[in-house]
Protein backbone atom coordinates (compact mmCIF):
# COMPACT_ATOMS: atom_id res chain seq x y z
CA UNK A 1 0.00 0.00 0.00
CA UNK A 2 1.17 3.57 -0.63
CA UNK A 3 1.25 5.89 2.39
CA UNK A 4 1.74 9.65 2.16
CA UNK A 5 3.36 11.09 5.28
CA UNK A 6 3.70 14.67 6.51
CA UNK A 7 4.30 16.42 9.80
CA UNK A 8 5.49 19.61 11.40
CA UNK A 9 8.64 20.09 13.49
CA UNK A 10 6.93 18.53 16.54
CA UNK A 11 6.14 15.35 14.63
CA UNK A 12 9.34 14.75 12.64
CA UNK A 13 10.98 12.31 15.07
CA UNK A 14 7.90 10.12 15.46
CA UNK A 15 7.18 10.33 11.73
CA UNK A 16 10.61 8.85 10.97
CA UNK A 17 10.02 5.96 13.36
CA UNK A 18 6.62 5.28 11.76
CA UNK A 19 8.13 5.53 8.30
CA UNK A 20 10.71 2.86 9.23
CA UNK A 21 7.92 0.57 10.47
CA UNK A 22 5.86 1.05 7.31
CA UNK A 23 8.85 0.26 5.09
CA UNK A 24 9.56 -2.81 7.21
CA UNK A 25 5.92 -3.87 6.67
CA UNK A 26 6.50 -3.63 2.91
CA UNK A 27 4.58 -0.42 2.23
CA UNK A 28 5.60 2.38 -0.12
CA UNK A 29 6.10 5.67 1.74
CA UNK A 30 6.21 9.20 0.35
CA UNK A 31 7.36 11.65 3.03
CA UNK A 32 6.27 15.16 2.04
CA UNK A 33 8.30 16.79 4.80
CA UNK A 34 9.55 18.52 6.77
CA UNK A 35 12.83 16.66 7.11
CA UNK A 36 14.30 18.37 10.18
CA UNK A 37 13.03 20.00 13.36
CA UNK A 38 13.19 23.62 12.20
CA UNK A 39 9.87 25.22 13.21
CA UNK A 40 7.31 25.25 10.39
CA UNK A 41 3.60 25.85 9.91
CA UNK A 42 1.77 22.52 9.85
CA UNK A 43 -0.64 23.44 7.06
CA UNK A 44 2.25 24.04 4.63
CA UNK A 45 2.92 20.29 4.75
CA UNK A 46 -0.35 18.60 5.68
CA UNK A 47 -2.51 20.50 3.16
CA UNK A 48 -0.56 19.36 0.04
CA UNK A 49 -0.17 15.89 1.52
CA UNK A 50 -3.93 15.58 2.11
CA UNK A 51 -4.63 16.67 -1.47
CA UNK A 52 -2.26 13.97 -2.70
CA UNK A 53 -3.92 11.31 -0.53
CA UNK A 54 -7.29 12.25 -2.02
CA UNK A 55 -6.11 12.49 -5.64
CA UNK A 56 -4.14 9.23 -5.55
CA UNK A 57 -6.73 7.42 -3.42
CA UNK A 58 -4.05 6.20 -1.00
CA UNK A 59 -3.67 6.50 2.77
CA UNK A 60 -2.00 9.19 4.83
CA UNK A 61 -0.29 9.32 8.20
CA UNK A 62 0.35 12.81 9.56
CA UNK A 63 2.20 13.62 12.77
CA UNK A 64 2.29 16.88 14.70
CA UNK A 65 2.45 17.79 18.39
CA UNK A 66 -0.98 16.51 19.40
CA UNK A 67 -2.52 15.27 16.13
CA UNK A 68 -5.60 17.47 16.06
CA UNK A 69 -4.09 20.17 13.88
CA UNK A 70 -3.33 17.65 11.15
CA UNK A 71 -6.82 16.19 11.35
CA UNK A 72 -8.61 19.51 11.12
CA UNK A 73 -6.55 20.55 8.10
CA UNK A 74 -6.92 17.19 6.34
CA UNK A 75 -10.67 16.96 6.92
CA UNK A 76 -11.19 20.16 4.92
CA UNK A 77 -10.16 18.25 1.80
CA UNK A 78 -12.70 16.29 -0.25
CA UNK A 79 -12.11 12.55 0.04
CA UNK A 80 -10.29 12.69 3.36
CA UNK A 81 -11.59 10.99 6.48
CA UNK A 82 -8.95 11.79 9.07
CA UNK A 83 -8.90 10.59 12.67
CA UNK A 84 -6.71 11.24 15.69
CA UNK A 85 -5.82 8.13 17.67
CA UNK A 86 -4.13 7.79 21.02
CA UNK A 87 -4.47 4.03 21.51
CA UNK A 88 -4.79 0.87 19.40
CA UNK A 89 -8.49 0.37 20.26
CA UNK A 90 -9.30 3.76 18.78
CA UNK A 91 -7.21 2.83 15.70
CA UNK A 92 -9.13 -0.44 15.30
CA UNK A 93 -12.53 1.29 15.38
CA UNK A 94 -11.24 4.10 13.17
CA UNK A 95 -10.88 1.46 10.46
CA UNK A 96 -13.72 -0.97 11.33
CA UNK A 97 -16.45 1.59 11.90
CA UNK A 98 -15.24 4.75 10.20
CA UNK A 99 -13.15 3.54 7.23
CA UNK A 100 -10.70 6.39 7.86
CA UNK A 101 -8.01 6.95 5.25
CA UNK A 102 -5.81 9.34 7.22
CA UNK A 103 -4.34 8.69 10.67
CA UNK A 104 -3.11 11.65 12.71
CA UNK A 105 -0.83 11.23 15.70
CA UNK A 106 0.70 13.52 18.30
CA UNK A 107 4.44 13.24 18.84
CA UNK A 108 4.21 15.26 22.06
CA UNK A 109 1.57 13.08 23.68
CA UNK A 110 2.26 9.43 22.83
CA UNK A 111 5.44 7.40 23.06
CA UNK A 112 6.81 5.67 20.02
CA UNK A 113 5.93 2.14 21.23
CA UNK A 114 2.22 2.94 21.46
CA UNK A 115 2.36 4.97 18.25
CA UNK A 116 3.82 2.04 16.33
CA UNK A 117 1.17 -0.23 17.83
CA UNK A 118 -1.53 2.23 16.70
CA UNK A 119 -0.07 2.37 13.18
CA UNK A 120 0.21 -1.41 12.96
CA UNK A 121 -3.43 -1.80 14.06
CA UNK A 122 -4.71 0.92 11.73
CA UNK A 123 -2.79 -0.48 8.76
CA UNK A 124 -3.95 -4.06 9.27
CA UNK A 125 -7.62 -3.55 10.19
CA UNK A 126 -10.29 -3.58 7.48
CA UNK A 127 -13.58 -1.71 7.37
CA UNK A 128 -16.41 -3.84 8.76
CA UNK A 129 -18.89 -3.90 5.90
CA UNK A 130 -21.97 -4.24 8.12
CA UNK A 131 -25.15 -2.46 7.09
CA UNK A 132 -25.04 0.07 9.97
CA UNK A 133 -21.40 1.05 9.36
CA UNK A 134 -21.93 1.32 5.61
CA UNK A 135 -24.98 3.53 6.20
CA UNK A 136 -23.08 5.81 8.59
CA UNK A 137 -20.06 6.15 6.32
CA UNK A 138 -22.37 6.92 3.38
CA UNK A 139 -24.08 9.67 5.42
CA UNK A 140 -20.72 11.29 6.12
CA UNK A 141 -19.82 11.00 2.42
CA UNK A 142 -23.09 12.73 1.53
CA UNK A 143 -22.06 15.68 3.72
CA UNK A 144 -18.76 15.93 1.82
CA UNK A 145 -20.60 15.75 -1.51
CA UNK A 146 -22.80 18.64 -0.42
CA UNK A 147 -20.22 20.93 1.14
CA UNK A 148 -16.69 20.13 -0.07
CA UNK A 149 -15.15 20.92 -3.42
CA UNK A 150 -14.31 17.86 -5.50
CA UNK A 151 -10.67 17.74 -6.60
CA UNK A 152 -9.91 17.54 -10.30
O1 LIG B 1 0.22 20.03 17.86
C1 LIG B 1 0.22 20.77 16.93
C2 LIG B 1 -1.00 20.99 16.10
O2 LIG B 1 -1.98 20.04 16.41
C3 LIG B 1 1.46 21.51 16.58
O3 LIG B 1 2.50 20.58 16.46
C4 LIG B 1 1.79 22.50 17.65
O4 LIG B 1 0.76 23.49 17.73
C5 LIG B 1 3.14 23.16 17.37
O5 LIG B 1 3.40 24.12 18.36
P1 LIG B 1 4.84 24.76 18.57
O6 LIG B 1 5.15 25.54 17.31
O7 LIG B 1 4.68 25.61 19.78
O8 LIG B 1 5.80 23.62 18.74
UniProtKB/TrEMBL annotation:
Keywords on record: Isomerase, Lactose metabolism
Species name: Pseudolactococcus plantarum
Q: Which family does it belong to?
A: Belongs to the LacAB/RpiB family.
Select a single GO molecular function from the record's annotations and give it. ribose-5-phosphate isomerase activity
- Descriptive protein name: Ribose 5-phosphate isomerase
Q: What is the lineage of its organism?
A: Bacteria, Bacillati, Bacillota, Bacilli, Lactobacillales
The record's listing under InterPro entries reads: RpiB_LacA_LacB (IPR003500), RpiB_LacA_LacB_sf (IPR036569)
GO BP terms: D-allose catabolic process; lactose metabolic process; pentose-phosphate shunt, non-oxidative branch
Question: Which is a Pfam family this sequence falls into?
Answer: LacAB_rpiB
